[in-house]
Amino acid sequence: MNFSSFFILGGIATFAGSAFGMALPNDGGASTPFASVASVASMHPEWVTGNLTLFFAWLLVGGAPDQAALHSMCTQFPNISGSWAAEGLDTALIKEVIDTNDGSPPNPVAAARQWYLYNTEIFLAQIFNVAPRNSSFLANLCNQMNTQLLIDATLNATRMQTAVCGAAGLPVPPPAPDAGSPETGLDIEAWASSIYGWLAIGISNSTSEIASNCTALSNLDSNLTSSLGQEGLVVPEIQGIFCSITGNPPSPAQAMQQVVNLSTQIFYTIIMNIGQEDGYIAFLCSSLEIPAMNAIGLDGQFILNEICSRSSLPGASRLRRSSHRHI
């Protein structure tokens, strides 16, 4: 089986309902997050790695075209997981998700709920690790976060506010009115689709295999492409990754550098757009720590430079902030 084609065509074409911008409910059927963060007493970068791994694993499971393909992934796992291990993902977690779902047809809707959960957990784990020396960071963030802006940023607002405010020992504040920022979700959808592409391309064994997937992505019919766009996976972003590779397949280090760049863009865009109170950006500038952000797979210098350069701009707290870094 060409597992690379399975990940690209199966994962993209069948993972319906995994929209980065959809408010999919956590109905209690989702797995327990990798870490239920409750304090910032110490750094826990493994929270981010674990949730990123589970995010990717559920994309694979939800994208399986049929049960036979899922079973093949299970039995052939030692032969296909090397690149993920080299990229720093927890392959034991990936295998656990695959094995648990082997034996029954893939359920994209159920997988979508899991994906939505881990998307929020990734950002939550980052939040609990980026300002370890600021004891008031979570309390301030609790009071600054806006429910509608959290939703627009593709997050489960209830989970975010309950976890952050609970850890700070504060009640969740009443919702504040806001017109929202739906454009934020569009940026995140594109970058998150690219993360999936860079993790999926690591399984490719040859330039010809990558070229084959490039062609397959380019030939998706317009209705399918449109449907995928509405569901949150941006096919041109993934296609662009495969079609840009003309030499040898990227190494795990090269692929993960792209994941770091994209994760940095997502974190920066979310953190800058979930609060609009006066002084919010200045609060971030004085709170976030470069070494702490670096330790969880982000480019801390870039994030802090971008935030602090905007903290003194007139009306900065009322503007949508997105920095399209070259990645």
Molecular structure report:
- Helix content is 62%, strand content 0%.
- The chain has 18 helices and no strands.
- Helix 2 (45-62) packs antiparallel against helix 7 (108-127), helix 11 packs parallel to helix 14 (235-244) and helix 15 (252-273) runs parallel beside helix 18.
- It starts with a helix and ends in a 17-residue tail after the last helix.
- Mean pLDDT is 77; it is low at 5-31, 35-43, 222-231 and 315-321.
Helix content: 55-70%
Largest sheet: none
Total beta strand runs: 0
Quaternary form: single chain
Secondary structure tally, helices: 18
Mean pLDDT: 77
Given as residue ranges, the uncertain stretches (5+ residues, pLDDT < 50) are 5-31, 35-43, 222-231, 315-321
Order of helices and strands: HHHHHHHHHHHHHHHHHH
End-to-end separation in angstroms reads 32 Å
Rough outline: globular
> Which structural class best describes the helix and strand composition?
mainly alpha
Radius of gyration: 19 Å
Strand content: under 5%
The gist of it:
The protein has 327 residues and is mostly helical. The protein is built from 18 helices and no strands.
List the defining traits of the structure above.
327 residues; mainly alpha; single chain
Reconstruct the topology from this structure.
Elements: H1 3-14, H2 45-62, H3 67-75, H4 77-80, H5 82-86, H6 91-101, H7 108-127, H8 137-144, H9 147-152, H10 157-167, H11 182-201, H12 207-218, H13 222-231, H14 235-244, H15 252-273, H16 280-287, H17 290-295, H18 300-310
Helix pairs in contact: 1-2, 1-12, 2-6, 2-7, 3-6, 8-10, 11-14, 11-15, 12-14, 15-18, 16-18
